[in-house]
């Protein structure tokens, strides 16, 4: 009779075998001249030091990196891409390396990049194989460069090869002997795993789940395909799940809610053979790019909840994460979970955001036909947090453009255009801002002639000799103006204002090529502090039949409803809220011209003050009751850009209904108006001339 194993040995054999892959060679990839960069070698070293200092590394099976064979990388990347990434560090590219890097989005290369990239991909293969084979229970691969942004033929977002995708394909295609038929990829990096999504978009063997900041399409990588409407296609339909946060500040409670109400029920139904975690830690509290606040305990809890699936076969591969202390502490917490250490989770103190609940419902709704388990009714959530104010979102907006389809990110989105009179304070405020006769009272230059606001009164004489514009100063220096001059916003223009010279007419007065009447300009004529382009998830349409300025033909409007299948270019100008109001006045023909002395008179009160901005940050839009019959009476809040609200002006939803019914005409833009839009897009380097013309024509031709 065999002797029973000694207790210590028994304990050891029962203890989880956890792989921990670390290799200094993956620190070779660094910026070429030692410039600072968030994705730097110290990230790996900081984690490694912490795990050693805490005695965790010694409890793991420590592994060295291994190179990926080309044929495995080729399962997700083009041969050209592999060749270039493998040669980019060679002498041959010494003189062109930086230039090539600049062609990509957020990429640098040095002499160590090729080696690190091949090792990162190979290392994830290595640990995945060992976990799949049962040699290890689970593993953590401390790799860099990260991978989830890398696409078939493109490096991006600090990623050269898509390490996790390479490993998933390796298991599925090259190792049938290991019996891995279904893989769950959980991407909890704060950014959308765009590369991984694309690689398995029609593949039902891989369930890709990504939870990320989306910020209405403006958060990096700022593609609309990060929205929850992208659920996979063909056989892969239902096997792609995006949980797109609307803002930063999301933390343990929000992630746990997404786990409990989306990921875990689906994982249960999918029943994966192994779980690969695209484990970025840039949603961690303290991360300089992410602006979210998952605590180390939060990560430990999220990971613990995954251990119940796939017999606990979990492979974590590092992606992003840029605060050295945060990532070290977070990986440490995760390592302890895998090692089986007992954890006491203090239940998250914070409640999820109201938006989190709404997003979860929208995701479930989108996927419920694919995953019936998501059809169940969610518990009524009692206390939810409201969206943080823009000023609270210290979070870096690591942003750019754009969007795709929602019908019902219910709540806020469907309340576009709805002024909620339920809120007494707000309706009270709105009633105070009626633009009645009194507010439009004429204050002429003579009545304030002692105040020299504008030494630069413009007198322009047209070809025919008529004075087209003279003075622009006429009203008092009202308190609201100085208040609102201290707040900046991004004004997102989508029509002729995309052409900067035309936009500047609204600031400086006058007219640009193609305009038949001049603008009076804004009181504050300072040029915009910044210009940037984006795309927004709204339908562009051309409506109405003529304008005084452009003649016969429709002009541009955005459908105020968000639609993630749509993508409209906007040129954003960073201006003051005072200037935004002056543009709004001009767009709505609220600036009166006093024909006799040529003075112009602005309304006395702003349409969009600070409280309206705040109202919009929750309600997404404000229909300006006092000017409800004007064409641009609807101001939309499109999200934040470096902590400033992005606003635009368009028609109210009721007009959209009238366009649909035929009561209002949809009509193509006049030649000059279209040409102005095209100039804007071309000079703004968004499209070439043909592309821009196609874009305008397509929007004009399509019914609503
Ligand atoms: N406005 C990972 O976390 N930011 N990549 C570029 C441009 C790029 C993040 C900002 C962020 C990439 C793996
Ligand atoms: Zn990231």
From TrEMBL:
Cofactor requirements of the protein: Zn(2+)
Q: Which InterPro entries match?
A: HDACs, His_deacetylse_dom, His_deacetylse_dom_sf, Ureohydrolase_dom_sf
UniProt GO MF annotations: histone deacetylase activity, hydrolytic mechanism; metal ion binding
GO cellular component terms, alphabetically, are: cytoplasm; histone deacetylase complex
One Gene Ontology term of the biological-process aspect is: regulation of developmental process
Domain Histone deacetylase, first and last residues per copy? 37-337
Q: Any idea where this protein resides?
A: Nucleus
Which reaction does this chain catalyze?
A: N(6)-acetyl-L-lysyl-[histone] + H2O = L-lysyl-[histone] + acetate
- Quote the SUPFAM superfamilies the UniProt record gives: Arginase/deacetylase (SSF52768)
The answer to whether keyword Acyltransferase applies is no
Q: Which EC class is this protein assigned?
A: hydrolase
Record key words, sorted: Chromatin regulator, Hydrolase, Metal-binding, Nucleus, Repressor, Transcription, Transcription regulation, Zinc
Q: Cite the EC number.
A: 3.5.1.98
**Where is this chain primarily localised?**
nucleus
Record has Repressor as a keyword: yes
The record's comment on protein family reads: Belongs to the histone deacetylase family. HD type 2 subfamily.
Query: What is the official name of this protein in its record?
Result: histone deacetylase
Q: Origin organism of this chain?
A: Panicum virgatum (Blackwell switchgrass)
């Amino acid at each position: 009779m065999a002797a029973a194993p000694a207790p210590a040995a028994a304990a050891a054999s029962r203890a989880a075998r956890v792989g921990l892959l670390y290799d200094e060679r993956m620190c070779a990839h660094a910026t070429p001249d030692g410039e600072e960069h968030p994705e730097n070698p110290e990230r790996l070293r900081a984690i490694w030091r912490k795990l050693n200092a805490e005695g965790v590394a010694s409890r793991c099976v420590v592994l060295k990196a291994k190179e990926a064979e080309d044929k495995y990388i080729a399962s997700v990347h083009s041969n050209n891409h592999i060749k270039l990434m493998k040669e980019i560090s060679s002498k041959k590219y010494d003189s062109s390396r930086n230039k090539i890097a600049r062609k990509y989005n957020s990429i640098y290369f040095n002499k160590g990049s090729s080696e690190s990239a091949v090792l990162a991909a190979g290392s994830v293969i290595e640990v995945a194989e060992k976990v799949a084979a049962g040699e290890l229970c689970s593993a953590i691969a401390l790799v860099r460069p990260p991978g989830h942004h890398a696409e078939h033929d493109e490096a991006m977002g600090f990623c050269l090869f898509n390490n996790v995708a390479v490993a998933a394909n390796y298991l599925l295609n090259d190792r049938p002997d290991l019996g891995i038929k279904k893989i769950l990829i959980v991407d909890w990096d704060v950014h959308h795993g765009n590369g991984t999504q694309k690689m398995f978009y029609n593949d039902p063997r891989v369930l890709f789940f990504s939870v990320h900041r989306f910020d209405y399409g403006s958060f990096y990588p700022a593609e609309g395909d990060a929205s929850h409407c992208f659920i996979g296609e063909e056989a892969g339909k239902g096997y792609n799940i995006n949980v797109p946060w609307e803002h930063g500040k999301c933390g343990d409670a929000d992630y746990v809610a997404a786990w409990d109400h989306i990921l875990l029920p689906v994982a249960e139904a999918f029943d994966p053979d192994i779980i690969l975690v695209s484990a970025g830690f840039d949603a961690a509290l303290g991360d300089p790019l992410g602006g979210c606040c998952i605590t180390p305990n939060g990560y430990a809890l999220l990971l613990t909840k995954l251990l119940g699936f796939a017999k606990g076969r979990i492979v974590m591969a590092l992606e992003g994460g840029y605060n050295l202390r945060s990532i070290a502490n977070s990986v440490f917490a995760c390592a302890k979970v895998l090692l089986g250490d007992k954890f006491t989770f203090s239940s998250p103190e914070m409640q999820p955001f109201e938006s989190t609940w709404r997003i979860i419902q929208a995701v479930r709704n989108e996927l419920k036909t694919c995953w019936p388990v998501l059809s169940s009714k969610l518990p009524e959530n009692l206390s939810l947090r409201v969206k943080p104010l823009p000023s609270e979102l210290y979070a870096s907006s690591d942003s750019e453009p754009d969007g795709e389809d929602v019908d019902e990110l219910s709540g806020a989105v469907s309340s576009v255009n709805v002024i909620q009179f339920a809120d007494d304070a707000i309706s009270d405020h709105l009633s105070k801002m009626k633009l009645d006769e009194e507010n439009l009272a004429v204050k002429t230059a003579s009545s304030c002639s002692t105040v020299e606001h504008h030494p630069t009164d413009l007198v322009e004489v047209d070809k025919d000799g008529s004075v087209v514009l003279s003075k622009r100063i006429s009203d008092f220096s009202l308190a609201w103006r100085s208040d609102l001059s201290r707040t900046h916003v991004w004004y997102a223009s989508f029509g002729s204002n995309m052409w900067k010279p035309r936009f500047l007419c609204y600031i400086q007065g006058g007219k640009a090529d193609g305009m038949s009447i001049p603008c009076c300009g804004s009181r504050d004529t300072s040029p915009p502090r910044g210009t940037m382009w984006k795309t927004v998830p709204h339908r562009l349409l051309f409506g109405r039949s003529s304008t005084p300025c452009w003649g016969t033909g429709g002009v541009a409007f955005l459908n105020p409803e968000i639609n993630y299948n749509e993508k409209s270019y906007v040129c954003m100008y960073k201006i003051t809220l005072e200037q935004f109001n002056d543009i709004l006045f001009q767009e709505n023909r609220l600036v009166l011209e006093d024909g006799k002395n040529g003075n112009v008179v602005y309304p006395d009160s702003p349409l969009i003050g600070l409280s309206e901005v705040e109202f919009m940050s929750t309600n997404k839009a404000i229909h300006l009751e006092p000017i409800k019959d004007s064409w641009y009476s609807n101001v939309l809040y499109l999200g934040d850009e470096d902590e400033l609200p992005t606003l635009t002006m368009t028609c109210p939803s009721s007009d959209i209904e009238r366009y649909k019914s035929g009561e209002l005409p949809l009509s193509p833009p006049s030649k000059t108006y279209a040409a102005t839009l095209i100039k804007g897009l071309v000079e703004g380097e968004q499209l070439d001339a043909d592309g821009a013309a196609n874009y305008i024509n397509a929007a004009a031709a399509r019914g609503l």
